[in-house]
Structures are given as C-alpha cells and as structure tokens.
Design a protein that fits this description.
Number of helices: 7
Largest sheet: 5 strands, antiparallel
Strand content: 15-25%
Helix content: 25-40%
Strand order of the largest sheet: 1-6-7-5-9
Bound molecules: zinc ion
CATH topology of the largest domain: N-terminal domain of MutM-like DNA repair proteins
CATH superfamily of the largest domain: MutM-like, N-terminal
Number of strands: 11
C-alpha cells in the first residue's frame, strides 16, 4: 500500500515530467473506482496547463489551469483566476500505481486495470502522439480514485479538510504531537495512524518510527513523556525522509519497462520481520494485532 514516501516519489516524477505541459487528451478507460472518475473530467481539463503537482497526506493534487485561453490572457484579478483553476486529486488506495512515459518512448501498451490516461505536451497538437508525455493511473483493487475540485474549494473538500498536520512540515514537532494526543487512551501506534492526528503515516512507517524512537507500540498515547514524544516526531521525520530518498534513488535508476514509479525496496528494521532478530539486540521481533492492524516491534529495545 503506497504511503507518504511512495506518494511523494510519484509526485516528484509527475512534476518533473509534466509541469508546464498542456493536456492534449484524457481517456477514462474504467471509471469504476472507490470514487468513480467524473465523466466530465476529459471535457473539463483538456486544454488546461499542468501548473504543478502537490501532495497532501497521501493525496496527489495536480494543479491545472482553466482551458479558456492561455495563461497570459487570464484575468489579473486573483479571485477571477482562482475560480477557473482545477485541482485533480488522485488517490492510489491499496494497489494504485502511476506510470509515466516520456515523449518518444515506445507507445505504452494498455494494461489491465488502467483507469485514467492523460496525454500532455508543449502545445495543443494532437497529431504527434509520440511527442506527448503520457500518464496512466492503474488500480487493480480500485480502492483509489480521482476527483476534480475547483482550486478555490480545495480546503473545504471533505477528503482534505479534516486532515492532521503534515509530518514533514516545519510546524509539526513534539509540542504539536503532544497537543494532538493529549488525554488519548489509545495506543501510540493507533494515534500515529489516525489521519486527524498526523496525516500520511501508514502501518510501515509508524512501526519503523516507533522502533527508532524506542517506544512500544502498545504504550498509551496520552501517557508518554514530552521528551519521548519529541524523539518520536524526530524519528517519524527521519524514517519518512530516508524512504523518500530511497524513492528518489529508485527514480534515477528507473528504467523499468512498465514505467511504474513509486514502489521501491528499502531496509526495514521491524515491519514484516516477525521472528527475525532485532538489528540492534538480536531479540526476535514480535508481531501483535492492534485495532485490526499488525504491529511489529522489538520487545527489548522498545518500552
Ligand atoms: Zn532490539
């Protein structure tokens, strides 16, 4: 399941390859997803320019200008400009992936479970299919989705408005996490997975961060000392940054024939290692179930 670092890797690749390009063609090959792809999507964004790609939690937000005329002709008034711009929100769900084909690469063969295909290039010219950068959203299990939001409405969007702080944001530190979990009777593991406490952290990186901070996943969130919570926020940032760096490496190396990005191998200390020895103390790693999710930890190093 893609977590924050995987989504960030996809974001970087998308922005590098597609920023500034004009959307030439959009095809919905299968709209059935957790949120069906809106049928008017091609009509609305074809002719628009991709201004950038952002990430909020595990959502990709593709900023697209209105198709009505080029950017120079847009009204100077900020409000008027805003009302025309779109934000295409993509979610990779459990099994979603994005493939990007740079121009002049061999035209991609359609694959099973391709849902959305976007062609973009320097100009409107549709005849030069080979000169288009092509982005494909694929999702075998269809837990992901796509939504088109007016830029000005994005903060009020139901998927975005309740999200907690970005763990890599400057404002997120020990004090911020302390405030968010104050009085909580749930485990610290459950608190880290709660998207209203902090956004974008999934099972893998919650387990790894708790290991790095030496905190047991079972510990009650509201009862942990300020100093340990400070250590934990540092550990969260550290594991996420290292994973993003690993994703960046996978991008540089990526000559995968499928063009798929965002999935990469990295060294994990506890996640998925039940029964294997701890990298620090050689104690076997334990696995427990916490609110339906598996938690992996070292009973010796994590207290
Ligand atoms: Zn250990």
């Amino acid at each position: 399941m893609p977590e924050l670092p995987e989504v960030e890797t996809v974001r970087t690749a998308m922005e590098n390859q597609m920023q500034g390009l004009l959307i030439r063609k959009v095809i919905i090959s299968d709209k059935r997803m957790r949120w069906p792809i809106p049928e008017n999507l091609p009509e609305r964004i074809t002719g628009g320019v991709i201004m950038g790609v952002r990430r909020r939690a595990k959502y990709l937000l593709i900023d697209i200008t209105s198709k009505s005329g080029n950017r120079q002709e847009q009204p100077k008034d900020e409000e008027a400009k805003k009302t025309k711009d779109w934000c295409l929100l993509l979610h990779l769900g459990m099994s979603g992936s994005v493939r990007i084909y740079p121009p002049d690469h061999h035209p991609p063969q359609p694959q099973k479970h391709d849902h959305l295909i976007i062609w973009a290039g320097q100009d409107q010219n549709h005849d030069h299919a080979g000169a288009s950068t092509i982005m494909v959203l694929n999702d075998p299990r269809r837990f992901g989705g796509a939504q088109l939001i007016l830029r000005q409405d994005q903060d009020q969007h139901p998927l975005l408005r309740t999200l907690g702080a970005e763990p890599l944001g400057n404002q997120w530190n020990g004090a911020a996490l302390m405030t968010a979990i104050k009085g909580r009777k749930t485990s610290i593991k459950a608190a880290l997975l709660d998207q209203q406490v902090v956004s974008g952290i999934g099972n893998i990186y919650a387990s790894e961060a708790l290991y790095q901070a030496g905190i047991s996943p079972k510990r009650q969130a509201g009862n942990i000392s300020t100093a340990r919570i400070e250590t934990l926020t540092g550990a969260v940032k550290d594991v996420l940054r290292r994973a993003i760096a690993a994703g960046g490496t996978s991008l540089r190396d990526h000559v995968q024939p499928g063009g798929e990005i965002g999935y990469f191998v990295q060294k994990l200390h506890v996640y998925g290692r039940e029964g294997e020895t701890c990298h620090q103390c050689k104690t076997p790693i334990k696995m427990i179930r916490q609110s339906g999710r598996s938690s992996f930890y070292c009973p010796q190093c994590q207290r």
